[in-house]
Amino acid sequence: MEAPVRHEPVMLREVIAGQRQCELAANEGISSLTSRERDIVRALVRYDGANGRTLAAQLGMSDQTLRNHFSAIYRKLGIPNRSGLVAYATRLRLDSAA
To answer: How far, in Å, CA of 74 to CA of 91, rounded?
Structure first.
């Protein structure tokens, strides 16, 4: 019986290439946000668990304005909801981005 053929180097290159594509897509998404939208994302992560009213007050805006910003952020990043945005921002460490 022959030993199985190993393809780790090829698979590793494919994994690395896939990660790079994800990083590029994430950077493109982030760069599409306005500075205010990036501030909102950072605040969302920083005040994780805060309700919309509290978050809006921290940001100095109305609840409706915050909802409008979230709608734009979700659309630009292709993220369906707030928990998805928290996961995305945390993974990319956007809470500490300048």
So the answer is: 16
pTM here is 0.69
Query: Which tops the pLDDT comparison, 44 or 23?
Result: 44
Two structure tokens written together for 43: 């605040």
**Nearest CA-CA partner of 96 in 58, 23, 42, 39:** 42
| Residues 6 or more apart in contact with residue 65 via CB below 8 angstroms | 56
Alpha-carbon 64 to chain mean position: 22
C-alpha to C-alpha distances, 48 to 25, 45, 63, nearest whole angstrom: 25, 5, 16
CA distance 17 to 94: 22
